[in-house]
Amino acid sequence: MSSIKEIQDEIIEEFGILGDDKESTIYYIMELGSQLPEFPEDQRVEENIIKGCQSKVWLTTVENGDKIKYLADSNTDITKGLISLLIRVLSDRTPQEIIKAELAFIDKIGMGNIIGSQRSNGLTAMIKQMKLYALAYQAKQNV
Amino acid sequence: MSLNIEEIRAMFPVLHQEVNGKPLIYFDNAATTQKPQSVLDALTGYYEHDNSNIHRGAHTLADRATRFYEETREGVRDFINAKETAEVIFTKGTTESINLVASSYGRKFITKGDEIIISTLEHHSNIVPWQMLCEEKGAILKVIPINDRGEILFEEFDKMLSDRTKFVSIVHVSNALGTINPVKKIIKLAHQVGAKVLLDGAQSTNHLEIDVQDLDCDFLAFSAHKLYGPTGLGILYGKRSILETMPPYQGGGEMIKEVTFAKTTYNDIPFKFEAGTPNIADVIAFQKALDFISCFGKANIKKHEDELLDHANIAFGQIKGFVPVGTAAEKVSVLSFNIMGMHPFDVGVMLDANGIAVRTGHHCTQPLMQRLGLEGTVRASFSVYNTKKEIDQMAISLSKIAKIKNK
């Protein structure tokens, strides 16, 4: 499996091909969102909603041995696309990898310009929540 | 008179730019309108030539700044046909104007068990101040329901009125849907039970002729920035007889006659309600915005805006998946809608990628969105400098966006 850095480099390259064309970039993000695996209906509950996002975002995890698998969904297609990028980078990794991951791709692909400042705050909230899950999982492992 | 829109557009420097590689199409006018060069020049001109604190100054600059500041007060008086300039109070916006009334009038005159009426169409700024007042006083907030077209149910309002009704605070034009409320009838009925009426004119003063004497409203609140003027400036009109009975809203300079440590006597209206150094530059520049409106004529501006709304209804109406929200018989040039299967945020971001500025979300009217069963809408709102060509361009972009989910 590729490293977190390698996957980020892949994403940077993909977005690099789209260049400065904002419209194509958004279509691409939405396309990525449409490929997100189905979110389990029984997990679509208030406790799994991430606070700080303008659109609704649900996030939950499935433990997979020593790794964490993330499942997420949103009521907006662009946000789904953003989550799918985060999942592609962080899912199926150990808590240690997730906690220390530096997500340089977000700045490098100019996400702030693409999605605007309010949505960028939402993206930060998603990353924070994903890392919190990893911290909780690590704490549990250490008991 | 038919307006020369190209000539008008030339007066607004901000319109002449590209956004995301496309010519800017600015359809977010209900949030704030753009400012003509004359307003921008007045702002810089004030700081370049006249900057000085107003009232009480013994020097030439202070006198000049005071004169210009008070000239705008007269300009506003004329704009809304108030009886006298003393009835025109400068605030920082519609929100502060409403809060001033809820705080000052409300605290003094509203008591336990009194009823305050608002409508389902209200902006949060005409809900929350009254909720706060009701909570403090043990008063009751009543809400006029609406039909699915976004029109208030007048007969329900009529039924709500009683001798317990002490205040009606109602939006003249809905910011989210563009509905024009029958405020003259509302004011008349409210007065029959002895209630006072505040009109939230944030979205009406830029489209409709406003005559506070003819309407007979007790208060009118609106903002300069939705009228081609600067941000951070609002107006509260109030009838002299009522303003004089109200305690000050804030304490400080300007609002006093005499201060001793034992007692302070308050200044006369309007100064009683303008504590501290006011927003001098923006007030002075606002006169240029009022001049802009009177130069072209509100009726001519409205005619153009109405034509744009009709054109947009037809152009967007042909797009598969387009669902208009708010189809009242009486509307201003605000077109709220959704695209089936799509979140308004996504539509807004994609329109922005095409250089088109619209507003998306709940438009600070969450209870209205709940009533309509919607998370939000996309809102295009048209102003005097917009063109049918821009609407056609948006229709092309919107059609492409809608196809993603409506093949």
From TrEMBL, chain A:
InterPro entries, per the entry: Fe-S_metab-assoc_dom
Every Fe-S metabolism associated domain range: 20-131
Family the entry assigns: Belongs to the SufE family.
Name of this protein: SufE family protein
